[in-house]
Predict the structure of Membrane-bound serine protease.
Amino acid sequence: MRYKKALITFVSICLIFTFLQICKAENNSDGKTYIYVIPVEGVIDNGVAVFTERAINEAEKTQAKALIFEIDTPGGEVNSAIKISNNILRTSIPTVAFINKEATSAGVIIAISCEKIMAVPAATIGAAETRPNEEKYISYWSSALRAVAEARGRDPQLVAAMADSDIVIEGVKEKGKILSLTTKEALKLGLIDEQVENLDEVIQKILPENKGNAQIIRAKMNLPEQIAHVASNPYIAPILLMIGIVGIVTEILSPGFGIPGVIGLIAFGLFFGGSFMAGAAPAWVLGLFILGMALLLIEIFMPGFGVFGVTGILSIIAAIIMAFPNLEQALISVIFAIAASSIIIYFLMKRITVNPIFNRIILGTKQEKAKGYVATSKDASEFLGAKGKTITPLRPTGAAVINGEKVDVLAEGEFIPKNSEIVVIKVEGSKIIVRNANNKESE
């Protein structure tokens, strides 16, 4: 009986404690007024979008009285900026955009998504021209700006003029130019609400009666978000790809497994991991990249007809393209990475000792005339039925010695290793087609 009473007492205390915690969470009984400051700095990308979404959700859980977006950005990815805009529009917490230097390009839509806009004296807002500057992109982007401006009761034509050079606003903007405004000009046109000197003044204006009791929480990126921010940055992603390509190719070219391979894998890991954490790429894209690498390894260690190698390369390229938020950025990044890495690899090949295993991917033997090789430009019917030996792997082409001559040959439907006995089964003009002499079909 005593244990039963003790159990009832313990359960009752737990229930009371739980009820008090719920009341505390719902009523914010600590008496504090929470204000969240969310910095939007640097290039806008998927990493920034993920960070702002988390910060807004945390502010909602703590029942913050206001959300201040401290903006200092030259712009970035349009899709990421629209994601941030949508999250600002959906929250029930009062929102303020504090332009602490510039809100240009994609930063415009983030600023106008807030209920109030304040800016320091030397701030700028505008210059939201799309890249590429094509009609379909301009139309989509200016429509998005108009919709947000209308939702917040701002002049949609004024905002759209920041993206569309064809829009004319008498006394403000002429045709052929993109609108960009200073703080003074934006105040005069009613685009921003107030001019302030610093963040403290912003807080004073939005909560004058609670400033002394307000607890300011400045949101910060966690480690996954920082990785996502770096890896999804449109300027850094191509560099990561370039490092990854150079590292892996250098590792294949040079004997052993060492620093180049590790660096290459880390670069690819940051690229795909960052894209995954930023929500730009699903997990299967990373799986497709791993599959591509596995197929390349199969091609190296189990030579065939190049099917595994070609499929592996295509899988890797497809995974890289799908890891980007849009096709345009993907193509630009991939072209840059391939071009830059090709130049670097070219110079590295002159300085490193080539691994023999690389010959399984690329035929590195030079068939020079001075070394006895004979180009079979004439009719090669004299070799029909003759036997010889390969001096390079046939994948399916390569070199062999037949009747004492070094000639170019083509294997029929199989991979033939170096130093294998072969027999000529067909001659088509200057083309010599051979088969492994040890196969029963050749007998």
Remarks:
- The longest strand covers residues 33-44.
- Residues 225-360 form one domain.
- Confidence is low (pLDDT under 50) at residues 1-29, 354-365, 371-377.
